[in-house]
């Protein structure tokens, strides 16, 4: 039986997923924040996906969490800081065999969301796809990539994985999803905060090789401490490679700060420092970086959590 995909969050990634699921003929329902957002969405006539400069409108059915229809499959596509509350608002609608896919970047929000739903299977995702909004309910597919999916508690692939094969969404089921999430978090911690503090593109970090190397060494210690030694392998080399390959880009955290948007700091560098602290392990440079980033955000009136 074809399952209905409920997608919470019609932002960049949520819209990118919803449009491609709908295009493949799968049943999709968007979950929007409230009645006001629903009215705006209906006035827009649907979601617009811009690919290779071409816009297509997808009139996907939408509802709010207050709707009463049951949810078997939920794709959570909000920011990490909204994940726990969003899941809590839908808990009463999830069926006994419901599954949740968590698309959030970083770490920490997945555990918080899962703790709200102790009986629901939670599948974690790590994506290198890129999308941004250029208007309300309009999303631009900016960077092709890949999405890894996995369940740290159960290596059995879910039944809906086959449906995903028909959508053209590049993906792979992996038993090592935690390693992937930790590796991505480490790359993010080594690059994004410094781009904010130096107000530079990723390539600007080529002028700060010693600082990047010191952070990579501490991140490697952290990953080993967390039982993720594979995520620490050749971290510094990959960070250097990413900095060079994306030299002309502004990091996501830089873009958030430049546009006065809340960052996901608590689920990235903040999470790294909190885990080290919990293990009573000293990571002086990461802690100092976190302190500088918090001051920077405070000075701009942005949340530091
Ligand atoms: P986004 O564009 O800000 O979209 C998030 C959406 O979630 C917004 O539309 C927001 O609604 C909605 N939302 C939040 N709480 C909600 C609730 N309770 N009910 C209904 N809707 C709710 O964020 P994004 O860029 O897609 O990022 C989502 C996650 O994917 C983040 O963790 C990000 O780091 C990760 N990620 C993003 C990309 C990318 O290229 N964008 C790539 C890789 C990973 P409103 O519009 O009403 O505020």
The molecules bound to the chains, other than polymers, are: NADP nicotinamide-adenine-dinucleotide phosphate
Low-confidence stretches: none
**Residues in β-strands, percent:** 15-25%
The string of secondary-structure elements, in order, is EHEHEEEEHEHEEEEHEHHHHHHH
Gyration radius, rounded: 19 Å
Q: Tell me the helix content.
A: 40-55%
**Spatial order of the strands forming the largest sheet:** 5-2-1-6-7-8-11-12
The level 1 CATH classification of the largest domain is Alpha Beta
User: How does the helix and strand content classify structurally?
Assistant: alpha/beta
Biggest sheet record: 8 strands, mixed
How many structural domains can be distinguished in the coordinates? Answer: 2
Number of helices: 12
What name does CATH use for the topology of the largest domain?
A: Rossmann fold
Report the average pLDDT across residues: 97
CATH architecture of the largest domain: 3-Layer(aba) Sandwich
Shape assignment: globular
Number of strands: 12
List keywords for this structure.
12 strands, 4-stranded mixed beta sheet, alpha/beta, 12 helices, binds NADP nicotinamide-adenine-dinucleotide phosphate, 305 residues, Rossmann fold, N-(1-d-carboxylethyl)-l-norvaline Dehydrogenase, domain 2, 8-stranded mixed beta sheet
Question: What can you tell me about this protein's structure?
Answer:
This protein has twelve helices and twelve strands. Strands 5-2-1-6-7-8-11-12 form an eight-stranded mixed beta sheet, sandwiched between helices. It has a four-stranded mixed beta sheet with strand order 4-3-10-9, covered by helices on one side. The chain is globular, with a radius of gyration of 19 Å. The mean pLDDT is 97. Helix 3 runs parallel beside helix 4, helix 6 crosses helix 9 and helix 6 packs across helix 10. It folds into two domains: 170 residues, 3-Layer(aba) Sandwich (Rossmann fold), CATH 3.40.50.720; 121 residues, Orthogonal Bundle (N-(1-d-carboxylethyl)-l-norvaline Dehydrogenase, domain 2), CATH 1.10.1040. The longest helix has 21 residues. 43% of the residues lie in helices and 20% in strands. The protein has 305 residues and is an alpha/beta fold. Strand 11, helix 5 and strand 12 form a beta-alpha-beta unit. The site of NADP nicotinamide-adenine-dinucleotide phosphate has 28 residues, from helix 1, helix 3 and strand 9. Pfam families: ApbA (PF02558), ApbA_C (PF08546). It catalyses: (R)-pantoate + NADP(+) = 2-dehydropantoate + NADPH + H(+). Its EC number is 1.1.1.169. Catalyzes the NADPH-dependent reduction of ketopantoate into pantoic acid. InterPro entries: 6-PGluconate_DH-like_C_sf (IPR008927), 6PGD_dom2 (IPR013328), ApbA (IPR003710), Ketopantoate_reductase (IPR050838), KPA_reductase (IPR013752), KPR_N (IPR013332), NAD(P)-bd_dom_sf (IPR036291).
């Amino acid at each position: 039986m074809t399952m209905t995909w409920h997608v919470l969050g019609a932002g960049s990634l949520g819209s990118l997923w919803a449009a491609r699921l709908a295009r493949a003929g799968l049943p999709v329902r968007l979950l929007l924040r409230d009645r006001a957002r629903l009215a705006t969405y209906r006035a827009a006539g649907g979601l617009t996906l811009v690919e290779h400069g071409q816009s297509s409108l997808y009139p996907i059915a939408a509802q709010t969490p207050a709707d009463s229809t049951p949810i078997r499959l939920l794709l959570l596509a909000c920011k990490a800081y909204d994940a726990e509350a969003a899941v809590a608002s839908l808990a009463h609608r999830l069926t006994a065999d419901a599954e949740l896919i968590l698309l959030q970047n970083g770490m920490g929000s997945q555990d918080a969301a899962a703790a709200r739903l102790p009986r629901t299977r939670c599948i974690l995702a790590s994506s290198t796809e890129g999308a941004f909004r250029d208007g309300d309910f309009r999303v631009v597919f900016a960077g092709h990539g890949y999405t890894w999916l996995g369940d740290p508690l159960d290596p059995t692939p879910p039944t809906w994985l086959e449906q995903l094969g028909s959508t053209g969404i590049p993906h792979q089921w992996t038993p090592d999803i935690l390693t992937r999430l930790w590796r991505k978090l480490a790359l993010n911690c080594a690059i994004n905060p410094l781009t904010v503090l130096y107000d530079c593109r990723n390539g600007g970090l080529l002028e700060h090789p010693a600082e990047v190397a010191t952070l990579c060494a501490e991140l490697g210690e952290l990953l080993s401490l967390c039982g993720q030694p594979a995520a620490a392998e050749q971290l510094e080399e990959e960070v250097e490679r990413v900095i060079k390959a994306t030299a002309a880009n502004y990091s996501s955290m830089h873009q958030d700060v430049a546009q006065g948007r809340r960052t996901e700091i608590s689920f990235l560098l903040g999470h790294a420092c909190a885990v080290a602290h919990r293990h009573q392990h000293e990571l002086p440079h990461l802690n100092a970086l976190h302190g500088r980033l918090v001051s920077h955000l405070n000075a701009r009136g942005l949340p530091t959590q």
